[in-house]
Design goal:
heterodimer; A: mainly alpha; 4 helices; B: mainly alpha; Serine Threonine Protein Phosphatase 5, Tetratricopeptide repeat; 3 domains; 15 helices
């Protein structure tokens, strides 16, 4: 007799075609690198939606987003001169550039097993070019808006 | 006695022979044997099922599907035909329909670990990893040495990042209980590759390919491992060995080196360091894709 009756409950939805694989780690990394944490979060949320784990991932991604934005904000508003003194010219920019990839690190840790599974099972990855460009553009747009607010 | 009278061949003996041939992947001979048997036992469900199984194994999915229709028309509860239909649906990416069949089979055969393995495989391939784990656990609870359940459990160990070094209990049991099976060797290839021993992995993969030179899967496996071990990719070892973690470490070290060089070296020397780093970054992004096209 089957012990875990929940196993007999269907997990796939008829009429939806094949369940989508998630956008690659490279898409997430490039979006985070060029578009910052917001772009990275957008790709991550799209992946969570594809995995139907938005409820689980949503708060973590939003939390990471808030932390990253707060850090970037503080660098822009208060810390630029201090960082330049400590790290030399361009130091603030270097730190700012690290935030995107660092944010990607959080997202990657969240979805690592899915990336690993797709790689091991040779599951085809959807083309992330359009999503990556859109997410990066949106992320950059928000960054520019934030910078404009900070200047005022 | 009439000279035209023919004796019926022993069906059970024919089926045993056909199974033995299929096990050894002698599909042409098995097909010949089954064609002969079907002259005496036309439309026999088990014979038809074996024909469908051969078609499926030879990737003739449409033919296999049509033959399974025939089997199920005669015997709607035929276990083999139902599980084969689930596999066919999976091959056709009709995942929800495949799932419905596995669930039906589990209702009818809650003691068969084959069903748990089949359903777990589907769940794993559709990235329902937790459910796949629970299914293999249930399958292994019923049959602790079930080969397919052990194999899928090992793959899940790798996916979940639990199969580092030699501590996958599932792999050890697979190698101990089924040392001669190709699935065990395939698991060994994955394990060696995971541990960074891609040369050993390639050696075992080549052995696998030697046993089944017609296998597209094994050809691809050898090709991927050959590419990964190519000398021109040696500078990317950290990425290959530790994935994105390795890439992050290399990136951090690279950026820091460039910054330190900026401060500590002459402008000319710092420019050389910067351009070397940029070259490495471009090489790491583009060369693997180019090599993939070349090999």
């Amino acid at each position: 007799m089957i012990q875990d009756r929940d196993l007999l409950r269907p997990s796939l939805t008829a009429g939806r075609g094949s369940p989508p694989a998630i956008y690659s780690a490279r898409t997430g990394f490039l979006a985070s690198f060029f578009g910052g944490p917001i772009a990275g979060a957008l790709v991550a949320l799209l992946n969570s939606q594809r995995l139907r784990r938005l409820r689980v991932d949503g708060p973590i991604v939003l939390l990471a987003l808030v932390v990253s934005l707060a850090l970037r904000w503080s660098i822009m508003v208060y810390g630029e001169r201090g960082l330049e003194n400590a790290l030399g010219k361009g130091g603030a920019m270097t730190i700012a550039r690290f935030i995107g990839p660092a944010f990607f690190g959080v997202v990657y840790a969240l979805h690592r097993r899915y990336y690993r599974g797709m790689s091991l099972l040779a599951i085809p990855v959807p083309n992330g070019l359009r999503v990556g460009i859109l997410a990066s553009a949106l992320g950059l747009g928000v960054e520019i808006a934030l910078a404009a607010v900070a200047v005022k | 006695m009439s000279g035209t009278e023919t004796t019926q061949p022993d069906l059970q003996a024919l089926l045993r022979q056909a199974h033995a041939l299929i096990d050894r992947r002698r599909f042409a001979l098995a097909r010949q044997l089954l064609a002969g048997a079907m002259q005496h036992y036309p439309e026999h469900a088990q014979l038809l099922y074996l024909c469908a199984f051969i078609d499926y194994s030879e990737k003739k999915i449409t033919a296999a599907d049509a033959t399974v229709d025939g089997v199920l028309a005669q015997d709607p509860k035929h276990y083999g035909a139902r599980s084969l239909r689930a596999e066919i649906y999976e091959a056709q990416k009709r995942y929800p329909e495949a799932e419905a069949i596995w669930i039906d089979l589990l209702h009818d055969y809650p003691q068969r670990s084959d069903c748990y393995a089949g359903y777990a495989d589907l769940m794993m391939r559709t990235l329902h990893l937790d459910k796949a784990e629970r299914l293999t656990a249930e399958g292994l609870r019923l049959a602790p040495s079930h080969q397919n359940c052990l194999y899928i459990a090992y793959l899940l160990d790798v996916i979940q990042g639990r199969a580092r070094s030699q501590d996958s209990e599932h792999l050890q049991r697979l190698l101990k209980d089924y040392p001669e099976r190709s699935q065990s060797l395939l698991a060994l290839v994955i394990d060696l590759d995971q541990r960074g021993d891609s040369r050993a992995a390639l050696r075992v993969a080549r052995q696998l390919l030697a046993t089944r030179p017609d296998s597209e899967h094994f050809v691809n496996l050898v090709r991927v491992l050959e590419r990964r071990g190519h000398w021109s990719l040696w500078p990317l070892y950290p990425m290959q060995r530790w994935g994105w973690g390795g890439a992050a470490a290399v990136t951090a070290i690279g950026i820091l080196t460039v910054r330190v060089a900026d401060h500590a070296l002459s402008p000319e020397a710092a420019a050389i360091v910067t351009f070397t780093w940029l070259g490495y970054v471009l090489y790491s992004w583009f060369w693997p894709s180019i090599l993939k096209k070349l090999i």
